[in-house]
Automatic annotation (TrEMBL):
The active site is at residues 79, 171, 173. The keyword ATP-binding applies. SUPFAM superfamilies: Adenine nucleotide alpha hydrolases-like, Class I glutamine amidotransferase-like, GMP synthetase C-terminal dimerisation domain. It is an enzyme of class 6 (ligase). ATP binds at residues 224-230. It comes from Paracoccus suum. This is GMP synthase [glutamine-hydrolyzing]. The gene is guaA. Keywords: ATP-binding, Glutamine amidotransferase, GMP biosynthesis, Ligase, Nucleotide-binding, Purine biosynthesis. The lineage of its organism: Bacteria, Pseudomonadati, Pseudomonadota, Alphaproteobacteria, Rhodobacterales. Residues 197-389 form the GMPS ATP-PPase domain. It catalyses: XMP + L-glutamine + ATP + H2O = GMP + L-glutamate + AMP + diphosphate + 2 H(+).
Length: 514
Protein backbone atom coordinates (compact mmCIF):
# COMPACT_ATOMS: atom_id res chain seq x y z
CA UNK A 1 0.00 0.00 0.00
CA UNK A 2 0.98 3.54 -0.63
CA UNK A 3 1.33 6.22 2.03
CA UNK A 4 0.45 9.85 1.41
CA UNK A 5 2.11 12.09 3.97
CA UNK A 6 -0.20 15.09 4.25
CA UNK A 7 1.39 18.48 4.81
CA UNK A 8 -2.03 20.13 4.61
CA UNK A 9 -2.51 21.03 0.95
CA UNK A 10 -6.04 21.84 -0.17
CA UNK A 11 -5.72 19.19 -2.86
CA UNK A 12 -4.15 16.27 -1.01
CA UNK A 13 -7.37 14.29 -1.40
CA UNK A 14 -7.02 14.61 -5.15
CA UNK A 15 -3.78 12.63 -4.98
CA UNK A 16 -5.69 9.82 -3.27
CA UNK A 17 -8.46 10.08 -5.77
CA UNK A 18 -6.09 9.86 -8.76
CA UNK A 19 -4.49 6.78 -7.18
CA UNK A 20 -7.86 5.13 -6.64
CA UNK A 21 -8.59 5.80 -10.31
CA UNK A 22 -5.38 3.89 -11.03
CA UNK A 23 -6.68 1.08 -8.80
CA UNK A 24 -3.96 1.57 -6.22
CA UNK A 25 -4.72 1.45 -2.52
CA UNK A 26 -3.44 4.41 -0.53
CA UNK A 27 -3.99 6.09 2.80
CA UNK A 28 -3.52 9.73 3.74
CA UNK A 29 -1.93 10.44 7.10
CA UNK A 30 -1.12 13.87 8.53
CA UNK A 31 2.63 14.40 8.76
CA UNK A 32 2.64 14.58 12.55
CA UNK A 33 1.10 11.11 12.82
CA UNK A 34 3.81 9.66 10.61
CA UNK A 35 6.32 8.64 13.25
CA UNK A 36 9.06 6.02 12.97
CA UNK A 37 6.84 3.53 14.78
CA UNK A 38 3.99 4.34 12.43
CA UNK A 39 6.21 3.74 9.40
CA UNK A 40 7.36 0.38 10.70
CA UNK A 41 3.81 -0.70 11.31
CA UNK A 42 2.37 0.72 8.06
CA UNK A 43 5.29 -0.59 5.98
CA UNK A 44 4.51 1.47 2.87
CA UNK A 45 5.57 0.17 -0.50
CA UNK A 46 5.96 3.77 -1.68
CA UNK A 47 5.12 7.23 -0.37
CA UNK A 48 4.00 10.59 -1.70
CA UNK A 49 4.73 13.79 0.19
CA UNK A 50 1.93 16.28 -0.40
CA UNK A 51 1.94 20.02 -0.80
CA UNK A 52 1.17 22.29 2.12
CA UNK A 53 0.63 25.87 3.18
CA UNK A 54 3.76 26.31 5.34
CA UNK A 55 7.18 27.50 4.25
CA UNK A 56 9.94 24.92 4.79
CA UNK A 57 12.26 27.78 5.67
CA UNK A 58 10.20 28.69 8.75
CA UNK A 59 11.38 27.31 12.05
CA UNK A 60 9.27 24.44 13.25
CA UNK A 61 7.74 23.89 9.81
CA UNK A 62 6.58 20.33 9.07
CA UNK A 63 8.99 17.57 8.10
CA UNK A 64 8.71 13.92 7.21
CA UNK A 65 10.48 11.54 9.60
CA UNK A 66 14.03 11.00 8.40
CA UNK A 67 13.33 7.27 8.50
CA UNK A 68 11.08 7.64 5.46
CA UNK A 69 14.16 8.41 3.34
CA UNK A 70 16.00 5.36 4.63
CA UNK A 71 13.39 2.71 3.92
CA UNK A 72 14.54 2.03 0.36
CA UNK A 73 11.08 2.76 -1.06
CA UNK A 74 10.23 5.05 -3.99
CA UNK A 75 9.22 8.57 -2.94
CA UNK A 76 7.45 11.33 -4.78
CA UNK A 77 7.49 14.88 -3.37
CA UNK A 78 4.94 17.40 -4.56
CA UNK A 79 5.38 21.17 -4.04
CA UNK A 80 5.96 21.52 -0.28
CA UNK A 81 6.80 17.81 -0.35
CA UNK A 82 9.57 18.54 -2.85
CA UNK A 83 10.95 21.28 -0.67
CA UNK A 84 10.81 19.21 2.52
CA UNK A 85 12.57 16.36 0.73
CA UNK A 86 15.25 18.70 -0.60
CA UNK A 87 16.00 20.24 2.78
CA UNK A 88 15.91 16.95 4.63
CA UNK A 89 18.29 15.37 2.13
CA UNK A 90 20.80 18.23 2.21
CA UNK A 91 19.67 20.70 -0.45
CA UNK A 92 18.50 24.27 -0.10
CA UNK A 93 15.21 26.10 -0.47
CA UNK A 94 14.76 29.84 -0.71
CA UNK A 95 11.73 31.62 0.65
CA UNK A 96 9.55 34.21 -1.04
CA UNK A 97 9.97 36.35 -4.17
CA UNK A 98 9.43 33.43 -6.49
CA UNK A 99 5.69 33.04 -6.28
CA UNK A 100 4.19 31.28 -9.25
CA UNK A 101 0.48 30.56 -9.38
CA UNK A 102 -1.50 28.95 -12.14
CA UNK A 103 -0.44 27.66 -15.48
CA UNK A 104 3.25 27.28 -16.31
CA UNK A 105 5.31 25.39 -18.85
CA UNK A 106 8.16 23.08 -17.96
CA UNK A 107 10.92 22.52 -20.49
CA UNK A 108 13.26 19.52 -20.36
CA UNK A 109 16.67 20.22 -18.86
CA UNK A 110 19.55 19.88 -21.38
CA UNK A 111 20.18 16.22 -22.10
CA UNK A 112 16.96 15.05 -20.46
CA UNK A 113 13.96 13.73 -22.24
CA UNK A 114 12.51 12.37 -19.01
CA UNK A 115 12.68 8.92 -17.51
CA UNK A 116 11.30 7.11 -14.51
CA UNK A 117 8.14 8.90 -13.51
CA UNK A 118 8.73 11.45 -16.25
CA UNK A 119 8.66 8.83 -19.00
CA UNK A 120 6.46 9.74 -21.93
CA UNK A 121 6.48 13.46 -21.21
CA UNK A 122 7.73 16.35 -23.32
CA UNK A 123 6.14 14.94 -26.47
CA UNK A 124 5.47 18.52 -27.55
CA UNK A 125 8.79 19.76 -26.26
CA UNK A 126 7.31 21.08 -23.01
CA UNK A 127 4.79 20.18 -20.32
CA UNK A 128 1.87 22.25 -19.15
CA UNK A 129 1.60 22.19 -15.35
CA UNK A 130 -0.26 23.88 -12.50
CA UNK A 131 1.95 25.78 -10.08
CA UNK A 132 1.10 27.19 -6.70
CA UNK A 133 4.15 28.07 -4.68
CA UNK A 134 5.98 30.90 -2.98
CA UNK A 135 9.30 29.19 -2.17
CA UNK A 136 11.54 27.25 -4.50
CA UNK A 137 14.41 24.83 -4.44
CA UNK A 138 17.72 26.60 -5.14
CA UNK A 139 20.27 23.83 -4.51
CA UNK A 140 19.55 20.18 -5.18
CA UNK A 141 20.21 17.55 -2.54
CA UNK A 142 23.13 15.21 -3.35
CA UNK A 143 22.15 12.52 -5.82
CA UNK A 144 19.44 14.58 -7.52
CA UNK A 145 19.50 15.92 -11.02
CA UNK A 146 17.20 18.33 -12.74
CA UNK A 147 14.81 16.92 -15.33
CA UNK A 148 12.70 19.96 -16.14
CA UNK A 149 12.65 23.68 -15.50
CA UNK A 150 10.03 26.41 -15.64
CA UNK A 151 10.60 30.17 -15.68
CA UNK A 152 9.81 30.42 -11.95
CA UNK A 153 11.16 27.05 -10.83
CA UNK A 154 14.59 26.03 -12.13
CA UNK A 155 14.02 22.69 -10.41
CA UNK A 156 10.43 22.06 -11.47
CA UNK A 157 11.13 18.34 -11.94
CA UNK A 158 13.96 16.55 -10.18
CA UNK A 159 14.97 12.95 -9.72
CA UNK A 160 17.42 10.72 -7.92
CA UNK A 161 16.99 7.65 -10.12
CA UNK A 162 19.30 5.47 -8.01
CA UNK A 163 17.14 5.88 -4.93
CA UNK A 164 13.90 6.24 -6.93
CA UNK A 165 13.22 9.63 -5.34
CA UNK A 166 11.26 12.04 -7.52
CA UNK A 167 9.90 15.48 -6.87
CA UNK A 168 8.09 18.28 -8.65
CA UNK A 169 7.33 21.87 -7.81
CA UNK A 170 3.88 21.81 -9.43
CA UNK A 171 0.73 19.82 -8.69
CA UNK A 172 0.39 16.68 -10.83
CA UNK A 173 -2.83 15.71 -9.02
CA UNK A 174 -4.97 18.54 -10.41
CA UNK A 175 -6.71 18.46 -13.77
CA UNK A 176 -4.84 21.57 -14.87
CA UNK A 177 -1.69 19.49 -15.15
CA UNK A 178 -2.75 17.45 -18.18
CA UNK A 179 -0.05 14.78 -17.83
CA UNK A 180 -0.08 14.71 -14.03
CA UNK A 181 -1.97 11.47 -14.06
CA UNK A 182 0.70 9.98 -16.32
CA UNK A 183 3.40 10.91 -13.79
CA UNK A 184 1.44 9.38 -10.93
CA UNK A 185 0.84 6.27 -12.99
CA UNK A 186 4.53 6.00 -13.87
CA UNK A 187 5.32 6.36 -10.18
CA UNK A 188 3.01 3.62 -8.97
CA UNK A 189 4.12 1.25 -11.72
CA UNK A 190 7.78 1.67 -10.90
CA UNK A 191 6.90 1.15 -7.24
CA UNK A 192 5.46 -2.24 -8.23
CA UNK A 193 1.73 -1.57 -7.95
CA UNK A 194 -0.17 -3.57 -10.52
CA UNK A 195 -3.43 -1.70 -10.12
CA UNK A 196 -5.53 -4.57 -8.83
CA UNK A 197 -7.30 -2.63 -6.10
CA UNK A 198 -10.98 -1.98 -6.73
CA UNK A 199 -14.14 -0.64 -5.11
CA UNK A 200 -14.71 -4.22 -3.94
CA UNK A 201 -11.47 -3.95 -1.98
CA UNK A 202 -12.52 -0.56 -0.66
CA UNK A 203 -15.72 -2.13 0.57
CA UNK A 204 -13.84 -4.88 2.41
CA UNK A 205 -11.32 -2.48 3.91
CA UNK A 206 -14.06 -0.11 5.01
CA UNK A 207 -15.96 -2.95 6.64
CA UNK A 208 -12.86 -4.03 8.54
CA UNK A 209 -12.25 -0.46 9.67
CA UNK A 210 -15.84 -0.01 10.85
CA UNK A 211 -15.68 -3.26 12.84
CA UNK A 212 -12.46 -2.20 14.42
CA UNK A 213 -13.74 1.25 15.33
CA UNK A 214 -17.11 0.17 16.66
CA UNK A 215 -16.42 -3.17 18.34
CA UNK A 216 -19.65 -4.49 19.78
CA UNK A 217 -21.16 -1.05 20.46
CA UNK A 218 -24.43 0.13 19.00
CA UNK A 219 -24.54 2.69 16.19
CA UNK A 220 -27.34 4.97 15.11
CA UNK A 221 -27.58 6.54 11.71
CA UNK A 222 -29.74 9.41 10.55
CA UNK A 223 -31.06 8.33 7.20
CA UNK A 224 -32.27 10.99 4.80
CA UNK A 225 -32.90 8.73 1.86
CA UNK A 226 -30.15 10.50 -0.05
CA UNK A 227 -27.37 8.53 -1.68
CA UNK A 228 -24.69 9.32 0.90
CA UNK A 229 -26.49 8.32 4.08
CA UNK A 230 -28.00 5.31 2.28
CA UNK A 231 -24.64 3.99 1.13
CA UNK A 232 -23.16 4.62 4.58
CA UNK A 233 -26.04 2.75 6.23
CA UNK A 234 -25.84 -0.27 3.94
CA UNK A 235 -22.06 -0.45 4.33
CA UNK A 236 -22.22 -0.20 8.11
CA UNK A 237 -25.00 -2.75 8.27
CA UNK A 238 -22.84 -5.12 6.28
CA UNK A 239 -20.06 -4.57 8.81
CA UNK A 240 -21.96 -4.83 12.08
CA UNK A 241 -25.45 -6.11 11.25
CA UNK A 242 -28.15 -5.25 13.72
CA UNK A 243 -25.85 -3.26 15.98
CA UNK A 244 -26.96 -0.53 13.56
CA UNK A 245 -30.31 1.22 13.81
CA UNK A 246 -31.36 3.87 11.33
CA UNK A 247 -33.64 6.76 12.15
CA UNK A 248 -35.58 8.22 9.25
CA UNK A 249 -37.26 11.50 10.18
CA UNK A 250 -40.27 12.38 8.01
CA UNK A 251 -40.63 16.10 8.53
CA UNK A 252 -43.48 16.45 6.09
CA UNK A 253 -41.18 18.20 3.63
CA UNK A 254 -40.34 15.19 1.50
CA UNK A 255 -41.16 14.64 -2.13
CA UNK A 256 -44.02 12.56 -3.45
CA UNK A 257 -43.73 8.90 -2.41
CA UNK A 258 -40.31 9.47 -0.87
CA UNK A 259 -40.97 8.24 2.67
CA UNK A 260 -42.52 4.99 1.45
CA UNK A 261 -39.67 4.37 -0.97
CA UNK A 262 -36.97 4.84 1.66
CA UNK A 263 -38.71 2.80 4.32
CA UNK A 264 -39.48 -0.02 1.90
CA UNK A 265 -35.94 -0.20 0.72
CA UNK A 266 -34.25 -0.23 4.10
CA UNK A 267 -36.73 -2.17 6.15
CA UNK A 268 -38.03 -4.64 3.59
CA UNK A 269 -35.23 -4.99 1.10
CA UNK A 270 -32.19 -4.70 3.34
CA UNK A 271 -33.74 -5.71 6.64
CA UNK A 272 -31.96 -2.88 8.40
CA UNK A 273 -33.58 -1.95 11.73
CA UNK A 274 -35.30 1.34 11.00
CA UNK A 275 -37.24 3.78 13.11
CA UNK A 276 -39.65 5.68 10.91
CA UNK A 277 -40.30 8.87 12.84
CA UNK A 278 -43.46 10.45 11.45
CA UNK A 279 -43.13 13.99 12.76
CA UNK A 280 -44.97 15.89 10.06
CA UNK A 281 -47.30 17.77 12.35
CA UNK A 282 -44.50 18.77 14.69
CA UNK A 283 -42.42 20.33 11.90
CA UNK A 284 -45.25 21.87 9.93
CA UNK A 285 -46.75 23.24 13.13
CA UNK A 286 -43.50 24.93 14.09
CA UNK A 287 -43.11 26.36 10.59
CA UNK A 288 -46.55 27.93 10.49
CA UNK A 289 -46.21 31.64 9.86
CA UNK A 290 -42.45 31.41 9.26
CA UNK A 291 -41.26 32.91 6.00
CA UNK A 292 -37.67 33.94 6.68
CA UNK A 293 -35.33 31.37 5.06
CA UNK A 294 -32.82 31.31 7.90
CA UNK A 295 -35.54 30.94 10.53
CA UNK A 296 -36.93 28.04 8.52
CA UNK A 297 -33.56 26.33 8.33
CA UNK A 298 -32.83 26.85 12.01
CA UNK A 299 -36.26 25.66 13.09
CA UNK A 300 -35.92 22.53 11.00
CA UNK A 301 -32.37 21.92 12.24
CA UNK A 302 -33.38 22.30 15.89
CA UNK A 303 -36.43 20.04 15.57
CA UNK A 304 -34.46 17.47 13.65
CA UNK A 305 -32.02 17.21 16.52
CA UNK A 306 -34.81 16.96 19.09
CA UNK A 307 -36.65 14.27 17.18
CA UNK A 308 -33.53 12.36 16.40
CA UNK A 309 -32.49 12.44 20.02
CA UNK A 310 -35.92 11.28 21.18
CA UNK A 311 -35.93 8.30 18.86
CA UNK A 312 -32.27 7.49 19.29
CA UNK A 313 -33.00 7.07 23.00
CA UNK A 314 -35.17 4.09 22.00
CA UNK A 315 -32.06 2.39 20.67
CA UNK A 316 -30.51 2.57 24.11
CA UNK A 317 -26.79 2.67 24.74
CA UNK A 318 -25.68 3.72 21.26
CA UNK A 319 -22.12 5.00 21.38
CA UNK A 320 -21.67 5.99 17.75
CA UNK A 321 -23.44 8.20 15.26
CA UNK A 322 -22.99 7.32 11.60
CA UNK A 323 -22.98 10.00 8.93
CA UNK A 324 -22.56 9.92 5.17
CA UNK A 325 -20.06 12.78 5.18
CA UNK A 326 -18.17 12.99 1.87
CA UNK A 327 -14.80 14.49 1.20
CA UNK A 328 -16.14 17.73 -0.29
CA UNK A 329 -18.04 18.18 3.00
CA UNK A 330 -14.80 18.08 4.89
CA UNK A 331 -13.62 21.63 4.66
CA UNK A 332 -10.17 21.30 6.10
CA UNK A 333 -8.25 18.11 6.62
CA UNK A 334 -5.15 19.30 8.39
CA UNK A 335 -4.41 22.43 10.31
CA UNK A 336 -0.69 22.69 10.50
CA UNK A 337 -0.57 23.48 14.19
CA UNK A 338 -3.29 21.37 15.66
CA UNK A 339 -3.52 18.33 13.46
CA UNK A 340 -6.56 17.14 11.63
CA UNK A 341 -9.25 19.60 12.60
CA UNK A 342 -12.32 18.76 10.70
CA UNK A 343 -15.22 21.03 10.06
CA UNK A 344 -18.20 19.84 8.14
CA UNK A 345 -20.51 22.17 6.25
CA UNK A 346 -23.05 23.00 8.88
CA UNK A 347 -25.97 22.05 6.73
CA UNK A 348 -24.59 18.58 6.24
CA UNK A 349 -23.89 18.01 9.87
CA UNK A 350 -26.28 16.99 12.57
CA UNK A 351 -24.90 20.07 14.28
CA UNK A 352 -23.77 19.59 17.84
CA UNK A 353 -25.54 16.29 18.19
CA UNK A 354 -22.57 13.97 18.70
CA UNK A 355 -21.16 16.08 21.55
CA UNK A 356 -24.54 16.59 23.18
CA UNK A 357 -25.28 12.90 23.16
CA UNK A 358 -21.76 11.83 23.97
CA UNK A 359 -21.49 10.03 20.64
CA UNK A 360 -18.48 9.38 18.47
CA UNK A 361 -18.74 9.71 14.71
CA UNK A 362 -18.54 6.89 12.18
CA UNK A 363 -17.97 8.39 8.74
CA UNK A 364 -16.96 5.65 6.34
CA UNK A 365 -17.28 7.82 3.22
CA UNK A 366 -15.28 10.81 4.30
CA UNK A 367 -12.46 10.11 1.86
CA UNK A 368 -14.70 9.69 -1.14
CA UNK A 369 -16.10 11.95 -3.81
CA UNK A 370 -19.72 11.68 -4.91
CA UNK A 371 -19.06 9.58 -7.99
CA UNK A 372 -16.97 7.19 -5.90
CA UNK A 373 -19.81 6.87 -3.37
CA UNK A 374 -22.07 5.97 -6.26
CA UNK A 375 -19.56 3.33 -7.39
CA UNK A 376 -19.47 1.96 -3.86
CA UNK A 377 -23.27 1.94 -3.80
CA UNK A 378 -23.29 -0.13 -6.99
CA UNK A 379 -20.74 -2.45 -5.41
CA UNK A 380 -23.08 -2.86 -2.44
CA UNK A 381 -25.94 -3.71 -4.76
CA UNK A 382 -28.08 -0.63 -4.19
CA UNK A 383 -30.61 -0.26 -7.01
CA UNK A 384 -29.35 1.92 -9.85
CA UNK A 385 -32.40 4.16 -9.57
CA UNK A 386 -31.43 4.93 -6.00
CA UNK A 387 -27.76 5.51 -6.65
CA UNK A 388 -28.36 7.98 -9.43
CA UNK A 389 -30.81 10.09 -7.43
CA UNK A 390 -30.35 13.82 -7.48
CA UNK A 391 -29.22 15.38 -4.18
CA UNK A 392 -32.04 16.53 -1.93
CA UNK A 393 -31.42 19.06 0.84
CA UNK A 394 -32.06 18.27 4.51
CA UNK A 395 -34.68 21.05 4.93
CA UNK A 396 -36.47 19.52 1.95
CA UNK A 397 -39.34 21.29 0.25
CA UNK A 398 -39.29 24.05 2.88
CA UNK A 399 -36.52 25.83 0.98
CA UNK A 400 -38.34 25.38 -2.33
CA UNK A 401 -41.36 27.20 -1.04
CA UNK A 402 -40.31 30.83 -0.54
CA UNK A 403 -42.57 32.64 1.89
CA UNK A 404 -44.88 30.89 4.26
CA UNK A 405 -45.21 27.13 4.01
CA UNK A 406 -48.72 25.76 3.94
CA UNK A 407 -49.97 22.19 3.44
CA UNK A 408 -51.77 23.39 0.32
CA UNK A 409 -48.59 24.80 -1.23
CA UNK A 410 -46.62 21.70 -0.31
CA UNK A 411 -49.23 19.53 -1.97
CA UNK A 412 -49.11 21.58 -5.17
CA UNK A 413 -45.33 21.63 -5.10
CA UNK A 414 -45.09 17.83 -4.73
CA UNK A 415 -47.35 17.27 -7.70
CA UNK A 416 -45.57 19.78 -9.93
CA UNK A 417 -42.19 18.40 -8.96
CA UNK A 418 -43.30 14.86 -9.80
CA UNK A 419 -44.43 15.97 -13.27
CA UNK A 420 -41.16 17.83 -13.94
CA UNK A 421 -39.05 14.85 -12.89
CA UNK A 422 -41.25 12.51 -14.92
CA UNK A 423 -40.69 14.71 -17.97
CA UNK A 424 -36.94 14.68 -17.40
CA UNK A 425 -36.88 10.91 -17.08
CA UNK A 426 -39.09 10.41 -20.14
CA UNK A 427 -36.69 12.50 -22.20
CA UNK A 428 -33.71 10.54 -20.89
CA UNK A 429 -32.14 13.62 -19.29
CA UNK A 430 -32.14 12.63 -15.62
CA UNK A 431 -28.53 11.45 -15.48
CA UNK A 432 -27.22 14.49 -17.37
CA UNK A 433 -28.60 16.79 -14.71
CA UNK A 434 -27.07 17.32 -11.27
CA UNK A 435 -30.33 18.37 -9.67
CA UNK A 436 -33.80 19.34 -10.85
CA UNK A 437 -36.84 20.49 -8.95
CA UNK A 438 -39.75 22.88 -8.86
CA UNK A 439 -40.03 25.86 -6.54
CA UNK A 440 -43.50 27.22 -5.83
CA UNK A 441 -43.51 31.01 -5.85
CA UNK A 442 -45.26 33.08 -3.21
CA UNK A 443 -47.26 34.88 -5.82
CA UNK A 444 -50.56 34.25 -7.55
CA UNK A 445 -51.13 35.42 -11.09
CA UNK A 446 -54.09 35.67 -13.39
CA UNK A 447 -54.67 33.20 -16.17
CA UNK A 448 -57.37 32.01 -18.47
CA UNK A 449 -58.29 28.36 -18.77
CA UNK A 450 -61.16 27.26 -20.94
CA UNK A 451 -63.50 30.19 -20.74
CA UNK A 452 -62.75 31.01 -17.15
CA UNK A 453 -60.38 33.22 -15.24
CA UNK A 454 -57.84 31.56 -12.96
CA UNK A 455 -55.91 33.09 -10.11
CA UNK A 456 -53.29 30.54 -9.09
CA UNK A 457 -49.68 30.12 -8.05
CA UNK A 458 -46.72 30.57 -10.35
CA UNK A 459 -43.84 28.12 -10.15
CA UNK A 460 -40.24 28.03 -11.28
CA UNK A 461 -38.46 25.03 -12.75
CA UNK A 462 -34.83 24.65 -11.71
CA UNK A 463 -32.37 22.24 -13.33
CA UNK A 464 -28.61 22.56 -13.14
CA UNK A 465 -25.43 20.85 -14.16
CA UNK A 466 -22.63 20.75 -11.62
CA UNK A 467 -19.68 18.67 -10.54
CA UNK A 468 -19.88 19.20 -6.81
CA UNK A 469 -22.72 21.58 -6.12
CA UNK A 470 -20.29 24.43 -5.46
CA UNK A 471 -20.77 25.98 -8.87
CA UNK A 472 -23.57 25.26 -11.28
CA UNK A 473 -25.04 26.23 -14.61
CA UNK A 474 -28.65 26.00 -15.74
CA UNK A 475 -29.52 23.07 -17.93
CA UNK A 476 -30.10 24.04 -21.59
CA UNK A 477 -33.47 22.34 -22.17
CA UNK A 478 -34.95 22.64 -25.63
CA UNK A 479 -37.82 25.06 -25.99
CA UNK A 480 -39.97 22.15 -26.98
CA UNK A 481 -39.20 20.35 -23.72
CA UNK A 482 -39.94 23.47 -21.69
CA UNK A 483 -43.20 24.12 -23.51
CA UNK A 484 -44.36 20.54 -23.12
CA UNK A 485 -43.47 20.51 -19.43
CA UNK A 486 -45.26 23.79 -18.75
CA UNK A 487 -48.37 22.49 -20.46
CA UNK A 488 -48.29 19.26 -18.49
CA UNK A 489 -47.84 21.01 -15.14
CA UNK A 490 -50.66 23.45 -15.79
CA UNK A 491 -52.97 20.70 -17.02
CA UNK A 492 -52.12 18.14 -14.37
CA UNK A 493 -51.54 20.23 -11.27
CA UNK A 494 -54.46 22.14 -9.87
CA UNK A 495 -53.30 25.36 -8.29
CA UNK A 496 -50.60 26.36 -10.80
CA UNK A 497 -51.36 28.47 -13.83
CA UNK A 498 -47.93 29.85 -14.75
CA UNK A 499 -44.55 28.16 -15.23
CA UNK A 500 -41.19 29.90 -15.49
CA UNK A 501 -37.68 28.54 -16.01
CA UNK A 502 -34.85 29.75 -13.75
CA UNK A 503 -31.74 30.35 -15.86
CA UNK A 504 -29.48 31.71 -13.12
CA UNK A 505 -26.07 30.13 -12.71
CA UNK A 506 -24.30 29.63 -9.38
CA UNK A 507 -22.71 32.00 -8.56
CA UNK A 508 -24.38 34.46 -8.41
CA UNK A 509 -27.49 32.40 -7.63
CA UNK A 510 -27.58 29.33 -5.44
CA UNK A 511 -29.08 26.06 -6.57
CA UNK A 512 -31.88 26.09 -4.04
CA UNK A 513 -34.14 29.13 -3.83
CA UNK A 514 -33.52 29.67 -0.12
P1 LIG B 1 -27.05 25.77 -2.78
O1 LIG B 1 -28.51 26.07 -2.71
O2 LIG B 1 -26.29 26.28 -1.60
O3 LIG B 1 -26.94 24.19 -2.70
O4 LIG B 1 -26.43 26.17 -4.08
C1 LIG B 1 -25.81 23.42 -3.02
C2 LIG B 1 -26.17 21.96 -2.83
O5 LIG B 1 -26.40 21.70 -1.45
C3 LIG B 1 -27.73 21.27 -1.23
N1 LIG B 1 -28.21 21.91 0.00
C4 LIG B 1 -28.34 21.28 1.16
N2 LIG B 1 -28.13 20.00 1.48
N3 LIG B 1 -28.82 20.47 3.69
C5 LIG B 1 -28.39 19.60 2.76
O6 LIG B 1 -28.24 18.42 3.08
C6 LIG B 1 -29.06 21.78 3.43
O7 LIG B 1 -29.45 22.53 4.30
C7 LIG B 1 -28.81 22.20 2.09
N4 LIG B 1 -28.92 23.40 1.47
C8 LIG B 1 -28.54 23.20 0.18
C9 LIG B 1 -28.50 21.72 -2.46
O8 LIG B 1 -29.65 20.90 -2.67
C10 LIG B 1 -27.47 21.57 -3.54
O9 LIG B 1 -27.33 20.22 -3.94
Amino acid sequence: RLLIVDFGSQVTQLIARRLRELNVYCEIHPFHDVTDAFLDEFAPQAAILSGGPASVTATGSPRAPQRLFEMGIPLFGICYGQQAMTIQLGGHVEAGHHAEFGRAFVAPAPGHKGDGIFAGLFQDGREEVWMSHGDRVTTLAPGFEVIGTSPGAPYAMIADEARRFYAVQFHPEVHHTPHGRQMLENFVRLAGFTGDWTMASYRNDAIARIRQQVGDAKVICGLSGGVDSSVAAVLIHEAIGDQLTCVFVDHGLLRQGEADEVVAMFRDHYNIPLIHADEQSLFLGALTGVSDPEVKRKTIGRLFIEVFQKHAAEVGGARFLAQGTLYPDVIESVSVSGGPSVTIKSHHNVGGLPEKMGLKLVEPLRELFKDEVRALGRELGLPASFIGRHPFPGPGLAIRCPGEITPEKLDILRKADAVFIDQIRKHGLYDDIWQAFVAILPVKTVGVMGDGRTYDFACALRAVTSVDGMTADYYPFSHQFLGETATRIINEVRGINRVTYDITSKPPGTIEWE
